[in-house]
Amino acid sequence: MRISSELPLYRVTVPTPFPVGPVHLYVIAEPELTLIDSGPRTREARAELNRLLAADGFDPEKIRRIILTHSHQDHYGMAAELARRSGAAVYAHPVEHAVLRHDASVRRFIDRLIAESGTPPDLVEKMRRMIAFVGSTTESLDDVRSIDELPGVACGDARLEFVPLPGHTPGSVGLWEPRRSILIGGDAAISNITPNPFSSPDASQPHGRFRSLAEYWETFRRIRQLNPAIIHAGHLEPITDFPAYEKWSWDLHVRRQNLIVDAITAGARTVHQIALALFPEVVPQGAFLALTEILSHVDLLEEEGKIDASFENGIGVYHVAAPAMECGATLS
Ligand SMILES: [Zn+2]
Questions:
Q1: How far away, in angstroms, is 199 Cα from ligand 1 center?
Q2: Torsions phi, psi of 274, nearest 5?
Q3: I need a surface site. Which of 41, 46, 283, 308 has the fewest CB within 10 A?
Q4: Which residues surround ligand 1, an ion (CB under 5 A)?
Q5: pLDDT band at residue 192 using 50, 70 and 90 as cut-offs
Q6: Confidence class for position 321, pLDDT limits 50, 70, 90
Q7: Which of 64, 97, 107, 104 minimizes the C-alpha distance to 82?
């Protein structure tokens, strides 16, 4: 479906087997057939992608370039297959490459994260099955290039610029058309959803974890400055009133942060216990997502000095920070 009267820009929507529902891919028709995101590697997504590309008059074998907004399975799963079929070059932000290549370090990071969460073994088993299923909707991308190699992406007579949108993942990127104020935003902002700021590796941080939630709000500030007329997202409807969306997201964030501090105050100590207090209906099916959501919050709460974190027998434990001493107060 063409989504711009002035630009050769199309949207193609394919199903995913995940709770988030269908994922939107974007197609730049000219001067070179370019696909933004690929959909997951499932029979259903493949059939729908072929059908919809043909309906818009595009031949999948003529795709010259695939740009990935980020390294989540519903966005990159089919990219290797499409690249093989068409000879297209695949591009993503360099910090996403380890995940896209199925690097063993990513698996080790996830294993450590689960081990430190205090999740009981039966639930860990369910989590592993879920992670294996999600992984089965992808294929590793052994030949992925950096978006730094591209000066932007031509779209008709316009040029889309890359905009870093870290938070949902460390190397999330958007494509920005300044004259028409159009942002293709991946999963940085999704109407009616606050995208999960996933825990990701980052060797420069205290826990080796990327400051996902802190960066997420930085990204929102960056989008606010761009002031897009429309954000074409990875899921659901486009966002046409970003300030309203940002306020709604912020209010939800503050409520969630307060609930987490309340849960810790009431005795929840591990990430698993906090997840259980906040999302009793999500655990166990969405246990890993709940875990990574809570981790992003506790990392930020710790950074803000609102909670303290330590380790007991290899498990991360949290408690509410002692109130800061008033100016002039002394220890007695
Ligand atoms: Zn995503």
A1: 12
A2: -65, -40
A3: 308
A4: 72, 187
A5: confident
A6: confident
A7: 64
Whether 157 is covered by a domain: the verdict is yes
Q: What is the structure's pLDDT at 328?
A: 45
* CA 134 / ligand 1 centre spacing (Å): 12
Average pLDDT value for residue range 297-312: 94
Distance CA 44, CA 21 (A): 13
Assign residue 62 the CATH number of its domain. Answer: 3.60.15.10
Count structural domains, the chain.
1
Confidence of residue 283 (pLDDT cuts 50, 70, 90): low
Distance 177 CA to ligand 1 centre (A): 22
3-state secondary structure of 158: strand
Task: Please check whether residue 32 lies inside any domain of the structure.
Answer: yes
Distance CA 41, CA 80 (A): 9
Provide the domain limits for residue 48. 9-102+138-240
